[in-house]
Amino acid sequence: GTSDALRAGLRGAVTGAAVAYTVSQVVAGVDAWRHDTHQFYRVGAPTGNYARQSVTRITRFEIEGSVRIFENGILNDLERAVTHGLNHYDGRSFILAHNPTRGGFADIIETALGKLTGTSSLGRDLAGVLGRIDPATSSLYLHSQGAQIGMNALKILAESGGSACGLEVFGYGGATHLTTSKAIASSAGATWAGWTMNALDAVPNIVGLNAIFAPHRFLTSLLASPLLLAPTGLEHLSPHTWQNSMWRAFNRTY
């Protein structure tokens, strides 16, 4: 009697909390897709170790000329985004277009909407920056969700009559399809500079649908998915991490 009622009440409370959290994340994801903008930072080359680099907040209007731009993926606070950018750019200085996080599920909703509609608030924001730089002497590195934002930006730029002629576009673990991404980059005049995917990484293989012609990658990615978002200090366990991943032997660049 009483114990059954308590268990039923507890189940109801847990279910209610889970539903409320899911709804709040969906709302946050839709809002991010509609309204989010970047925070931009100039990241200097580290002196001795990655903990001693300079990180300076700048406005989008300060980004011009020849630049290296890095766009991060989901669940990246500023520190993690800076670390990823330094890894991808081999410790060289760059501009971080920081894609803010609203939570894991919200970030996934935001990415899905950007993929389904071909546009996003962050994509429009980045397109505005790309229209101000000298693309022939610049590069854009896209990681994870950042690939979807970058493709939105290049598509918007091309459709508005702008050009990214000569802009080197790199990617790692992108949440977009390889063939579609190449076509979008080409339509904007950008140069395809290398797109790296790991055979165990669920983001490019499942979310980006790149395993559609290699079904075994669905299985390997699913098996490795618990390692995808390894905590700080254990990033080397994740196939979604760059050069320090213990799985880098399974990387392939296209």
Provide the descriptors you would attach to this structure in a database record.
single chain, globular, eight-stranded mixed β-sheet
What can you see in these coordinates?
With 254 residues, the protein is of the alpha/beta class. It is built from eight helices and eight strands, in the order αβββαβααβαβαβααβ. It has helices at 2-35, 78-88, 104-117, 121-130, 145-159, 178-187, 202-207, 216-224, and strands at residues 39-43, 55-58, 68-71, 94-98, 139-143, 168-172, 191-198, 251-253. It has an eight-stranded mixed β-sheet with strand order 2-1-4-3-5-6-7-8, sandwiched between helices. Strand 3 (68-71), helix 2 (78-88) and strand 4 (94-98) form a beta-alpha-beta unit. Helix 1 packs across helix 3 (104-117), helix 3 (104-117) runs parallel beside helix 5 and helix 4 crosses helix 5 (145-159). The radius of gyration is 19 Å and the shape is globular. The model has no long low-confidence stretch (mean pLDDT 92).
Question: What's this model, at a glance?
Answer:
This protein is an alpha/beta fold and 254 residues long.
The residue-averaged pLDDT reads 92
| Alpha-carbon Rg, integer | 19 Å
Helix count equals 8
Strand content bin: 15-25%
The best one-word shape is: globular
Main-sheet strand order equals 2-1-4-3-5-6-7-8
Give the N-to-C terminal Cα separation.
63 Å
Low-pLDDT segments, ≥5 res: none
Q: What is the helical fraction, as a range of percent?
A: 40-55%
User: How many distinct beta strands?
Assistant: 8
Instruction: Report the major sheet.
Output: 8 strands, mixed
Helix/strand order: HEEEHEHHEHEHEHHE
Structural class: alpha/beta
